[in-house]
């Protein structure tokens, strides 16, 4: 009976771990957000990354600290140095009693161009050791328009399962009921500050309700931002057209192969009829060694899904900025009339 209690306890613990609730929100300390913004803006327009540290509590992922990765070029020796740098930083944080549990990473982006294969591969590498992790994406160019462009992303479970099998054919996607909008999941972000910091910020607030940030939101110069978004949108449309040409070429080859197969089968059946008339054994109607029956691999639809997702992101950004610009123009028109 003495061994029964620990065994049942382990079973319950394993069961609770297996049915862990999904991440519903990401709670970030205000200081962490400021450190992310400072790091991304200092190196803009270059893209930077960093590590997120915190705690995994139920359905909430708490981000309590972060540190930047050194900017380096693609080199095996430098990559090894970068890994050692991360381990050394986490060891130093542990020595000063700071949360050093990795919960994901953050990265900057330019005009929302973050939906790439590299981001998916990074997610899969993290998933090998950390089952519940997020990526915080910050866009300095979008934030200059008066909006805090901060997103918390994760890969959907259905997409990760399909990515591990590396089978992005049309039949498999229809079977999983997976579309281009099901690749990434955006998780709500909650900003958390201690009571002392909140009280201090209240003391710092000026008496006047209008601040310089409020005036900056009335700037009418949105042309550069719209132009760059349109340029990226045109590039994505060209990439999507190239992906469609790949599928057209595949379907042409498939139709040609099917026609060759039908011609070969008709020829073989006619030959078998003559062999039967001569009292000989008929030949098999399928010949795997024949190049005509070799299956043509279907192109992966992952790139087209990512490009379509990116196009939707650019369109949403253009609509948002255009809507704000119209509101500002009408506001300025009313002020001039008065």
Automatic annotation (TrEMBL):
PROSITE patterns: MPN (PS50249)
Alphabetical list of CDD domains matching this protein: MPN_eIF3h (cd08065)
Residue ranges with Basic and acidic residues bias: 268-279
Molecular function terms, GO-annotated: metallopeptidase activity; translation initiation factor activity
UniProt key word Transmembrane helix: no
One GO CC term on file: eukaryotic 43S preinitiation complex
Keywords tagged on the record: Cytoplasm, Initiation factor, Protein biosynthesis
Domain MPN per the UniProt entry, residue ranges: 26-159
Location of region: Disordered: 265-295
Location within or outside the cell: Cytoplasm
Family: Belongs to the eIF-3 subunit H family.
Subunit structure, interactors included: Component of the eukaryotic translation initiation factor 3 (eIF-3) complex.
Protein's name according to its UniProt entry: Eukaryotic translation initiation factor 3 subunit H
Upper taxonomic lineage: Eukaryota, Viridiplantae, Streptophyta, Embryophyta, Tracheophyta
Gene that this polypeptide is encoded by: LOC107805315
